[in-house]
Design brief:
This protein is mainly α. The protein contains eleven helices and no strands.
């Protein structure tokens, strides 16, 4: 059995078991598993993008140091994958990793797209807002643009997103006040 087949088998076990602590530990035991989980996020065959990204978010939470060498790969897959669940899970994982300038321009564009996408789920929009905070900080014009987007969206978004928007706006006001 190939390493990728073992990783897929592990994900199917994870799907049934959902013991994220045990499986996030297992994902760090073999040097090939994390890159394989990342590559499975690109697939479209259920359940692989959904559960590999979910497991990666738990690896980020429980074994962050193991995921740090793959931060650029996570950003790449976040920018390219099309599955909303995988995007949400990868956004969650990226929030647990340190700030980086890697592909910051593409990230800015993609995150704004999520905010404006009526099909994007609440959690994905919330993660997009939180990921935008450090990216817009050095750019006052983007802070203003993000505030405009948030003010425009707050009227039509759910209460859950409205709460996240208010937190983000508070952080943005802190940046504005310090200038």
């Amino acid at each position: 059995m190939s390493s990728m087949e073992k990783t897929k088998e592990m994900l199917l076990e994870f799907k049934d078991n959902r013991d994220y602590k045990s499986f996030s530990m297992r994902a760090t035991q073999d040097s090939e598993t994390i890159p394989e989980l990342i590559s499975l996020c690109y697939t479209i065959k259920y359940p692989f993008p959904q559960y590999s990204s979910w497991l990666l978010s738990h690896v980020a939470e429980n074994h962050r140091e193991q995921l740090l060498p793959f931060q650029s790969d996570l950003i790449d897959v976040f920018l390219k994958c099309s599955d909303h669940s995988a995007q949400r899970n990868l956004g969650n994982a990226l929030l647990k990793l340190p700030e980086t300038d890697y592909k910051s321009g593409e990230m800015l564009e993609r995150l704004f797209d999520f905010l404006l996408d009526s099909e994007a789920k609440v959690a994905l929009k919330a993660y997009a807002m939180y990921l935008l905070i450090p990216l817009v900080k050095p750019h006052p014009e983007l802070i203003r643009e993000l505030k405009l987007v948030l003010n425009k969206r707050i009227e039509i978004e759910s209460r859950a997103n409205a709460g996240a928007m208010k937190k983000v706006e508070k952080a943005l006001n802190t940046f504005s006040a310090s200038r």
